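Tutorial handout. Part one gives the primary structure; part two gives the three-dimensional structure as tokens.
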Amino acid sequence: MSEWYYADAQRERHGPVDAGVIREKFRQGELDLNALVWSEGMSQWQPLSAVAEELQLLVQANTGIDLRGDYAAIENGTAPEPAILSAASPHSPYAAPGSISTDASRVVAGGDVVNAGFLRRFAASAIDGIVTGVLSYALLIPLALVMGVSLINMAGSEMANMGAMLVFYGLYYAICILVPAIYFGWMQSSNTMASLGKMAVGAKVVRVNGERISFWRAFLRYIAMTGLALVTCGLAMLVSAIMVGVTERKQGLHDMICDTVVVDKWAFTDHPEWQERGLGTVTIVVLSLFGLMLAAGVVLVIVAASIGASSNFTP
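Part two.
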């Protein structure tokens, strides 16, 4: 007898169970035709509708409406026998079970959409800040070493030193801006539609209609955020943070300029019910660590101020 595995509405895997358990859960409404199942011989997880014939699930072929409520009538012969769904294509019996997967790039409109709020986005930014910082310094450290050697070789030439410093600062700011812009452009235009930070907190960046954004839109989205921050001396960052907290779609200034929204990773998919409405474990952990670091910084400042005051005290 074949053993089956199935995923519930929370995307948790259960099994192994026999086919009778799957049929019973289907009849009781605990599983529907979109539920994902797997058994030995299947190359990947399949919707229940694809194996309806094998599991002897009776459904209406013309409307796609299942007849769970009419099973009593079907079994005692008082209802007309509906058609059976076609079985899935045969699979290799040697294939290992795959993960439960959906086509994340396909846009499903009309469902519930959970927008990522300020705290969730802040946690993602903290993670991305570490990633982009490591990438940037991987380029800046060799640049600084080359600059130091150049200044030693040009000792005594004030104009040459000034020119070298201008080149260094130009490259420094180019790296600090372009590396994150390329990183976000590449990651957010990929199939995941999210940077590493947003992947960690379960969010993604899309157009307001749910479509995946292009590399250049993602690239310019970061440039817009950075440019506004530089022009306004950081005021735009504060305004964007407030807007993320109060606007209907939780959009910052750069989101509105580039027609983007940050949503849960399951938004605009076949399973909007899997969206996380709370902060999530990763967000809570990141915020907790940030809070501890902030508290430690405040304590150090207070201790340093106390030591300084004591050293300056004259009895």
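Part three, for discussion. Residues 83 and 274 are 31 Å apart (CA to CA). Confidence is low (pLDDT under 50) at residues 59-75, 79-101.
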